[in-house]
NAD(P)-dependent oxidoreductase (Rhizorhabdus dicambivorans), 248 residues
Amino acid sequence: MSRRFENKVAIVTGAAAGIGRACMIRLASEGATVIGTDINRDKLDAAVAAAGPGAHGLICDSADPSAIEAMVAEVIARFGAIHVLINNAGIGPRQRLRLHEQPPEDWDRVMGVNVRGVYLMQRAIIPHMLAQGSGSIVNMASTGSFRATAMSSPYITSKGAVLMMTRAAAAEYARDNIRINAVCPGTTNTDILANSSAEMIEMLVARSPQGRLGQPEEVAALVAFLASDEAPHIHGGAYIIDGGRSAI
Ligand SMILES: NC(=O)c1ccc[n+]([C@@H]2O[C@H](COP(=O)([O-])OP(=O)(O)OC[C@H]3O[C@@H](n4cnc5c(N)ncnc54)[C@H](O)[C@@H]3O)[C@@H](O)[C@H]2O)c1
């Protein structure tokens, strides 16, 4: 394993499970000091333990601006800088419903984490990147940023917004040596699929050219490349990782 993140401090949101957990483990294995944030204390502790001595866990709700401010202040006080932000925390709606049936409170809950949370995290961290003259941000979008599926309109809407937020921010910070990209996974084998029926998963696998779901570690490998100094000219992009599903 290369050591692309030696002497770098990275924050990964939603690091207790799934893709975020895999990102924390990957960055730590490449030498980063990684601060994983989440709202699930038990799972976060287990993920930090799996990532090894370079990893630290902080409870932080991505939808809560004051929690984010406090978390960022603590990271700066303890580690001195933030070089990398992986804006990964994301949720789906509680129920699969058509648009007019979606309860407004569930709409707001999904937007609060998936869109406002991604904005709030950048709002708190970009000033530190501007002051140090560099930074790299990866926002977790989805193939749903490009292509709708039925019965999940808050999620699909939120991931379209993450893609355009990434592009807007990329236009604003390019001259400040802050790179911002989006990663767009297809269906990946994590707890986010807990509400999906076995038939639904079977159908997703059948539609995949590779005949399987993605693995969180495969997404983490792409995230690590984009966040690293190996990708200095990659900025404002949206990188699909879906085993060929979008190609057909
Ligand atoms: N798994 C997929 O098929 C898939 C596909 C495309 C995009 N994504 C995106 O990847 C990201 C990670 O998804 P995953 O599949 O690993 O999900 P997951 O449910 O396995 O893990 C998400 C983590 O985020 C945490 N979290 C939830 N709300 C939070 C909040 N308010 N503040 C902080 N942490 C919070 C959860 O506790 C959990 O640990 C999400 O943005 C998701 O939309 C996933």
About this structure: Residues 9-239 form a domain with the Rossmann fold fold (CATH 3.40.50.720). The first strand starts at residue 9 and ends at 13. The mean pLDDT is 97. The CA atoms of residues 97 and 236 lie 32 Å apart.
